[in-house]
Queue: 2 jobs
Job 1
Amino acid sequence: MKHIQTVNQPTLQLTRNSGGCGECQASCQSACKTSCTVGNQVCESKK
Amino acid sequence: MKVEMKQKIHKFIQNGMYILLDINSGAVHVVDKMIFDIMDYFDGENDGEVLAELAGKYAEADLQEALEELHYLMKIQQLYAPDLDVPPTFKQKGLVKSLCLMIAQDCNLRCKYCFGDGGSYGQERAIMSPETGRKAVDFLIEASGPRKHCEMDFFGGEPLMNMKTVKAVTEYVRQREKETGKKFKLTLTTNGILLNDENIKWLNDNEFSLVLSLDGRKEVHDAMRPCVGGQGSYDKAVANFHKCLDSRKGGDYDYRGVYTYLRGTYTKNNMDFTKDVLSMNDEGFDILSMEPVVLKDSPLGFTDEDLPRISEEYDKLVEAYLERWRKGKGFFFFHFNMDLSNGPCVAKRLSGCGAGHEYFAVAENGDLYPCHQFVGREKYRLGSLDEGVTDQHWPQYFRESHVLNKEKCRDCWARFFCSGGCHANADLFHGDIRQPYETGCEIQKKRLECAIAVQAIMKLEKNK
């Protein structure tokens, strides 16, 4: 495409029915700890 | 443009780059100025209106070409992707998989911004007994049901002030792992003062991930993180962190498995926090995190008036981060890290931090709370290790307090990245975990825009 560069291969829609295994790390967002938002995480099963 | 379509996208300019995010697919598009302008009007089925609105600004042939590209994105569900509802994979009840142990509700520092009142959490200074710690292990094994991976975070106060319990709990964890087939990930957060050779060796041998607290420049750190007697703690902490990190070189330590990283807090006194991040990197540390302080009615805390300055500083940090990366001297900054293609599933994005339904804190006396920040907020006491979870209301309320159930989150573009923010902060500012702390939201959104831009820039430059 000439006007648009897509920088990722998004998978969010695909995970509506396939995710939820719950094996991923907890993602506390408080400043005093791991300060991790879910946006900063990778799916455990795709590592 | 229809409002409901506007709520499906977010467009912004970062580092001179025009970025279009499709919220429900997570697709990130770097676009030209014409597409950026078109997206003020385009709702997927109003090409005529777009052409009329922008006729004076762009040639019709160019606009037609751009519209074709946008229709193609829609076809492959990377623009205006369908709204995400609560999926069947998001179980009605949470499964507790992670515990934070308040190993020592006492501390050898008196940090000016401490939410835990110098480690005591507004209660008597006390340490957790080995017996209570072992009960917590049994509680987690039972509560986590079929889940294989469990997490235990040794927290305080300063957990190294109570190594007796840290060691006893760890020994018991290893025993119970063998008996149950569970696998525990252990993390310890420390200010570093007691991180001596003996403790470092023991933590390495027992495969602990470590979160090390440092606020950046020596003068900033010493002003905020004094010892009980008032003297600065920087020199001691940094010397010990060097020893610790040197001892971990060449091992199996990375940030996803057994990790070691430095984290800092910035306050109103150092809104030039880029200097603090770079100071840590210059000191030789390269896995870093730096967070805004959260304080209410404090001269160190932030208000909306500080947002333009903070936003400007994140722009600076992006520049500095990329500059070092381009020179082959990059560092890992936790908040710019984002895997745009392999992020968590929808269920995880709704679960958020898990506080109160997947994650509990255990106070030194064995009482259970939704997370470490709620310790001492009696309204939220969930039960105890001896009684189990006696409160029937809060775990379910926390479970259901996800972004699709919170009025201010439902339409926010960042909802699937931040997952609704920190419940404890919401409670602190509004007395209600469903009303997010707005100043924190604005900072989070700016940081996410920076993270998305950083990932996009790095990807495009690598492709060149």
Note: DSSP finds 17 helices and 15 strands in chain B.
Job 2
Amino acid sequence: MSLLSIENLKTHYYTDSGVVKALGGVDLILEKGESVGIAGESGCGKSTLALSLIRLIKNGEIIHGKIRLEGQSLLELPEKEFNRIRWNRISMISQAAMGGLNPVFTIGTQIVEGILQHRKMKKRAAMALARELLRKVEIDPDMVKNYPHQLSGGMKQRAMIAMALALEPDVVIADEPTTALDVVIQAQIIKMLRKLQKEMNLSVLFISHDLSILAQACDRIMIMYGGKCMESGDTATLFKNPQHPYTRALINAFPDLKSRRDKLTGLPGNTPDMTNPPTGCCFHPRCALVKDRCISEQPVRQEINGDHVVYCHFAKPLSEEN
Amino acid sequence: MDAIYRITDLTKSYPLPGGGLLKKNRKVFRAVDKVSLEINSGDTFGIVGESGSGKTTLARLLLRLIEPTDGNVYYKGRDVFRLNRSELKKTRKEIQMIFQDPYSSLDPRKSIFNIIAEPLKVHKTGSLSDIHTRIVETLELVDLPTSDDFLSKTPGEISGGQRQRIGIARALVLKPEFVVADEPVSMLDASIKAGIIELMTQLKKKINLTYVFITHELALAYHFCNRIAVMYLGEVVETGNIDDVIQSPAHPYTRLLLDSIPPTEPDPDWLDKRFGKSDFSRNAEGCKFFVRCPNPKDSCLHFRPSLSEIKRGHMVACQLG
């Protein structure tokens, strides 16, 4: 049995301009001790997926699908029972820069509060645990006495990570944990997260728009576009043998340092309007290889090899061409 | 090649809080600290550094959006800070800026037409029909629609990538020679980002622009720029041709930046690298990078290195380099 399984998850938001079909049927499996990356650009549904997992969708709802944690179905649970799962068994590292920390409480108070919500222990013991956690994320344990504004961006993000790990959750969702940090700090945080993940045998869902970060931090990657999975597979295979035109485009859009390219290849067009998603394959309006079939017919799941899966009508013929 | 911009010992400091009633002993924070650079006509000159390195302050000084504490900036041989109002206004037609955030740098209540027309109106460049023709030409240049319907839209009705193209159109409508682009793509998605960089590359060829490109993404600068300056805490620590700096970095800070960039494909060795200490305290007397340097010498504590040439055009401010 997988630790976490998501089946055909659909989440919609209700806005003034219509129903935003943010997730259009996503499947995902996360095993114990595994780090899975969710890659995609803004509006692809990656954050909606994260929020659906902890049932914190605002102005919308999960309209279809199943989420199971060790076989237990989570979507049917009454809110009161789900409260015992959220943060305790599924926690989330959000962007510290985006107000993940409360400015009027010390770091220590905020970590302790989280612990005491779910564990019966003395406040002093919880504070000792908080200090231990800060040591784990490689910041000075005395920082428990500090307020968020006294910490640098990188330290705030480390404190957020400490909070998310406090209850030794089964699943940690890291939603863009290094966005808005400088590149050196970003590298330190990715390195630390990966180390903790291995040491504590954590299962991590790592959400990022930056494919190169996921390439280093994850065992497997799922590429999302328009609320759907385009391609998923183990990290090495996905980079060596990308099958979906969107995956290739995304890989080509990232500048690297190996050799100087004459030009970076962008993708024409814009990310789709999810109140009115494109018919057929949702990538077809921007796809260079589009055929009639792509406009009318939604591609189905195709297994390339083992868990390398792609949703494209022409995935196989393309690979033969190469 | 002739220098379009020559910058000598440029310094901008801001007072820090404290220092007593008469502010005599007030400490200052040097956002830009004795920077000297030359930017040649036709360059795409990258200025790279982390947040707080002074790259945006430097850009604002180039356009005289702020006044310096010390030093000079010569644009085509003339001291930018000695220009009088009318001379400055004339010069500003030639030097333009593209801003970072395509969401907040465009007035949400104005139409696309009025946003791009504003610089033309400020510089009184002709009748309304002249303005219209000029706007249509500029929109074609940046690959945007030119229909009246599009011109009457507001920034809220178009996508982020289109908005940044409007930002570029607004900078180009006066046909400048020199454009400062301050992190023009940092808020954009990868697929859109590459398209904007491609557009800026084409524009440079079409209309002979000189760019200053400010970015925190060294890899992006590598593909877009021909020369580069790496800044650390207000100082230029390394500068030279892009290939020299990226392929044979001489300053430990440049090497740290390069090592910190995640490779674009899985690389198991990358996570084993050391990514330096994240200590931003300053060494008041000696090398500013001393506290983060992987192998500093004792003398670095007291001696502040200045830029010296290690190869033609490749300068580094490090005793160890």
Note: Chain A has a mean pLDDT of 92.
